[in-house]
Model the fold of this input.
Amino acid sequence: MKISVIGTGYVGLVTGTCFADNGNDVWCVDIDEKKIERLNRGEVPIYEPGLDQMIERNVQGERLRFTTDLADAVRRTRIVFLCVGTPSAPDGSPDMRYVYKAAEDVARAMEEHTILVLKSTVPVGTAAEVRKRVAAATKLPFDVVSNPEFLKEGHAVDDFLKPDRVVIGTDDPRVALIMKELYDPFVRTGNPILVMDNVSAELTKYGANALLAARISFMNELANLADRVGADINQVRQGMGSDARIGHSFLFPGIGYGGSCLLGRETVLVRQGGRVRLTRFDRLFAALAPGAGDEAGAVAPEGLEVLSWEPSTGAPSWRPVSAVTRRPFEGEALEVRTKMGRRVRCTPDHPFVASDAAHGPRRVVLAAELTADHWLPLAQGREQGEAPRRVDLLGSLERLGVRQDEVIVRLAPAVAAALDVRVVRAAIERLGEHASPASRAHDIVRNGALRLHEARALGVALEGAALGTAKNGTYVPTGLDLDEAFWRVVGLYIAEGHCSVDGRRHRLSWSFHPTDEDALVEEVAAFWERLGVKATVLRRSTTTQVTVSSRLLATWWLGELGLGADCYAQRVPDLVWEQPEAHRRALLAGVWQGDGSWSRVNGGPSVVLEHGTASPELADGLLRLLGDLGIVARTKVGRTAKSTVDTHWLVVSGADQVERLVDLVKPAQRADLVGSVARQLKRIAPTGYRRFEGDASAWVRVTEVRRRPYQGWVYSLEVPGPETFVTTGGLVVHNCFPKDVDALGYTGKNAGMDLKLLAATNEVNRTQKRVLFDKISARFGGDLKGKRIAIWGLAFKPRTDDMREAPSLTVIGLLLEAGATVHAYDPAATETTRAVLGDRIQYAQKQYRALEGADALAICTEWNEFRRPDWERIRASLRQPIIFDGRNIFEPARVEEAGFEYYGIGRGRKLELSPRARG
Done:
């Protein structure tokens, strides 16, 4: 078939390419001339695994073309897919101007009956409106089809080629047949093509999101009920999720929907179960919610921490994650660019911690409001953790799926000498694998070698043994010491290594200059020889290569250590993140001495250190490792001659920084470098970043904010406390602001429907604000007259004076209405609160002053300074030792141990409401 696709954003490009790959002739149209020029040069403007190769293949096959000439493309085709963006308007509604304009342009260009297919995510009723507008622009016959997309970023090609369902909205059976014929090649495994009317097709995607919102609100309400009756909501959730009709996915209380704002390729450093890993958002969410499918949602991970940033000190620290969220987004995404090359991609309403050029007060600024006057923090100087200094290679291989009967074990000489042939024979007989157990037992005793499952059956000690998969192959130890020598060899592999596979043979190789890097060749070869591992040195005309041929070592090297098989897939191994500084420096030294360089700036004496990589994941990891050392590197992206991928360059400049990294330079060159830097008498402050007294972080200036259409998943984290986390390149971002559920209400109103369930969902969210008051009222028997309640925290969020939608206003209003008096303290929001409430409450200038003579303390905002209070001072100030924690910032056991009654949210503390309180 002949197809045109209007819009070469995420959905349009994937749609057009996948149709072309199945033999259709496709014209992809966009008004952005530069984008079309890039596509015609073979440059793909989005990252999607497999898409670039598919585009190249179909362009060469002349099935896929890119053009700015919409009229020409429409005249050549009979089916036109509309895949243009629908960004959010100021009132939260989708901006449909681009869809309508594209439809009208198609109407004016077409010369015969044409099928217009709405692939963009559009509100209910869009097909009818498009039909009306097209009819006004042409007298020719046409049809409008609704065909919503269900693509996940990172899996879009697979999702399109192997959809779990295809939804087609049309009332014309002939059009339905044409669309089914178009999609038939993608559903040969039997997944359905669902034909329905336009309105039903449009509602399908919105219905899934609305159902999720209702499910989350239901769990919020159930959590409140659990509090009232003394139940544990986590146990309740597990019991409900075990019902196959309900399932466990996204059945978590206390988590709102929406508010997920970073693109899936952005990264975070997380820790769980004692293991640290640097991962992308889309991979993190997929690992935490493997059955999520096409659903948006939130996951409450157990024991997950993220590298956060403490606003009071500027220091990074590990903080618990209460939720990982995901939602679909279509509209303009922003790329926030800063000095030193740091970039982060997000939705326009994603909040950042920012300061002005004079390092004024820090405040929260939305991405769309960032200008060149704003500075953003970079996390620096992360403390080292308690990392293992030795790894169990054998245990890792078993976790990686290597079968025990594949592994040959050569026992340590002392262990082999102590073998008793009768004991060995008895173990072999129990296995029942050999026709002659006696012969097998004599072989084992004579050679001191046996299969791993035989060694397990025998119960023999494996310490000091060697492992292999072939009698004459390479053998490796059962464990490795993670010392500086090991990390240097890892760094050299990152810079100069690759892994090749030939059948069952796996080779790890380090490739060096044929004559100039003999010291590095010797270092790698000697390292493996000290471990008893055979390393082969091959000298060729263009390279000298050190090779270790070991399937077991390569499996661990790539699978457990996580290194890449080639330069495009290289990354910083996760095990290094918690290693001591000397080990991290050793890895960096290996990377730099293997493939880095240093040079004088304009002849000297200023010096820069540089390293280039084709792996963006490696560049991100190296930037963070340097940041751990307090080094602010600059990053730049470019494409060298004859290269088909971008190179990510890391540049360290400034005499002070270069002097701290002399060990990254080859020993023979250090004296020359040090001498050059020593001649640099004038050392000016760096131009790309700033440091401030009492602040551990570095601050980089925003240079520009670029906009581009985007359609796909966006993600975020909820990090109670600092409400920040460190993302790609060490940039700090703020927690997302939750989206108002009224945005869903707009969709319902626009569709002319009375969404009663949505109204109920909205009501649950609204009444959630009064939960803290209900607890206070219940504790005092429903009679609050004459009671004095101290409140810590007034602002909507910490580190702001914003009182819009602040829960404290609801709590205070209800307390005053019930006859209580309120004495409140907030570090920043006193004056903004006074503008709202006037003198109806008392305002304390210090946090403990607010407690004097109060009957209880209620916490409404989770300011950091409240988290480590003086418990004795609180007890001495309050009339009664009662705390109502509306933000769950304290651990119940700790507070109760200090002698307080403690009431949190969803903590299972039973409180009976009196009739007066209920009323």
The radius of gyration is 32 Å.
